[in-house]
Structure formats: C-alpha cells, structure tokens
C-alpha cells in the first residue's frame, strides 16, 4: 500500500507545472495522519468543521494554512478566527461581515473564496453569479477591511459523466473571469479557482484549477 507521503508526492508531481496547489483534506482523520502529511511537505490543510479544525490546529506547526471548506455558520466564525487562513465556503454578505468583525478583533485578515453553486444536485450550496455580484457591488462589502476575497470555489456534480463535470468546472472558471474583470482587475491576490477533488481533479486541472482539494486519494476512505 502506498503511504500518505507517497500519495502526496504523486499529487505534487501531477500538479507540477500547472500552477495549482494541493489542499490536503484532513477532515475526520486523526492528528498523527496530519503530521505525516506535514512531514511529507503538505502545508495547506482543508477541514469542513470549525470545531474539528480548531482542535487540530494547535497540534500542527504554525506555518500550516488552514482552509475551511465546509459550510460555515456565522456563530461558529469566532472559533476559527484566530488562525484560519482561508474560508473557501463564503456564501453570504452576512458571513463576510462576521468574518471581518472577528478578524478585526484579532488584528488580522482572513481570506475568503466565494463558493458557487455549479452542480446540478439540489443539495450542493453556493451562490449564483448574480448573488455574488450583488455582494461585491454593495457598500457594505466595500467597507470591510479585515476580510479579503482571493477567488472562487465550487463542487461539481458527483457523476461519472466527465463532459458534465468539465462543463461545470468551465462554468466556475468563467465566473472567476467575469468577477476578475469587473471587480478585481488590479488585485493580483484575486487568483484562486478552487475546484477538483479525488475523483475529478484531472478535469479540474484541465479547466484551470489553482487549488485541488484532495482527501480520500491521499488518506484513504474516511471512516
Ligand atoms: C471532503 C471534501 C473534499 C475532498 O473529497 P475527496 O473525495 O475525499 O477527495 C473536497 N472538497 C470538499 C468541499 C469536501 O467537503
């Protein structure tokens, strides 16, 4: 069986030259496995629950970038505000305002990605392009100083239909391009397109992903 380190090195090879980075999705896995990933070179970790992330973070070195990839309720923001690097699942102005408020209390800036609904499945959450634009054009958003949007994120439909998955990734890419031109032309930090997981990362890379979020293909199936 390949080790966690073997799997990470294999992914680093796959993304070499693409400009994309690997987010090791560590949700449900115990800290020793995260330490193994760290030792193999991983520095970006993705968790989907604030509480679990807050318990693990102090047990890893401080140069880990913690990415929250699951839905975040505003009342949970304070749990992760002292250390979270990027909230990839930003889906409302209210959440941005709370991130700003809590980041300010800690004298820091929290990065965020706007999560878009690109899948055909009802359950997958996220914004439409119109909803994202409403946020970006608002005076409330313009006033925020401790939260910084650095790109977009999306989850494709869980299907074997590769044409459909590719089409969804291309749509996310086109949302990114549209927002970049209209709201972030001079902002070099608005550059992330987070898409692709264990089952569809290759299609995501082909569509221009800059962050692939990989769990089971590194750590094995979650219990
Ligand atoms: C769990 C999760 C992943 C990783 O999924 P794998 O199929 O295990 O690679 C990626 N993105 C999000 C948002 C997740 O919740």
UniProtKB/TrEMBL annotation:
Gene3D superfamilies: Alanine racemase. GO terms for molecular function: pyridoxal phosphate binding. The modification N6-(pyridoxal phosphate)lysine is found at residue 27. Pfam families: Ala_racemase_N. Its cofactor is pyridoxal 5'-phosphate. Residues 3-221 form the Alanine racemase N-terminal domain. Signal peptide: none annotated. The keyword Transport does not apply. It comes from the Bacteria. InterPro entries: Ala_racemase_N, PLP-binding_barrel, PyrdxlP_homeostasis. Keywords: Pyridoxal phosphate. Belongs to the pyridoxal phosphate-binding protein YggS/PROSC family. Pyridoxal 5'-phosphate (PLP)-binding protein, which is involved in PLP homeostasis. NCBIfam families: YggS family pyridoxal phosphate-dependent enzyme (TIGR00044). HAMAP family: PLP_homeostasis. This is Pyridoxal phosphate homeostasis protein. It comes from Hymenobacter nivis.
């Amino acid at each position: 069986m390949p080790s966690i380190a073997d799997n990470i090195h294999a992914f680093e090879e796959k993304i070499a030259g693409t400009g994309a980075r690997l987010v090791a999705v560590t949700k449900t896995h115990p800290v020793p496995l995260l330490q193994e990933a760290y030792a193999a070179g991983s520095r970006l970790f993705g968790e989907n629950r604030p509480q679990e992330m807050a318990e693990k973070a102090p047990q890893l070195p401080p140069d880990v970038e913690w990415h929250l990839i699951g839905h975040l309720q505003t009342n949970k923001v304070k749990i992760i505000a002292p250390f979270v690097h990027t909230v990839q699942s930003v889906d409302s102005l209210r959440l941005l305002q709370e991130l700003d408020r809590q980041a300010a209390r800690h004298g820091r800036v929290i990065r965020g990605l706007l999560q878009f609904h690109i899948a055909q499945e009802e359950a997958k959450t996220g914004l439409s392009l119109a909803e994202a634009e409403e946020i970006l054009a608002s005076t409330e958003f313009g006033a925020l100083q401790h939260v910084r949007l650095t790109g977009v994120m999306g989850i494709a439909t869980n299907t074997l239909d590769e044409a459909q998955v590719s089409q969804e990734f291309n749509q996310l890419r086109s949302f990114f391009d549209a927002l970049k031109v209209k709201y972030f032309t001079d902002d070099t930090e608005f550059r992330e397109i987070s898409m692709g997981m264990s089952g569809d990362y290759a299609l995501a890379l082909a569509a221009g992903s800059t962050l692939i979020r990989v769990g089971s293909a590194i750590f094995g199936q979650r219990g």
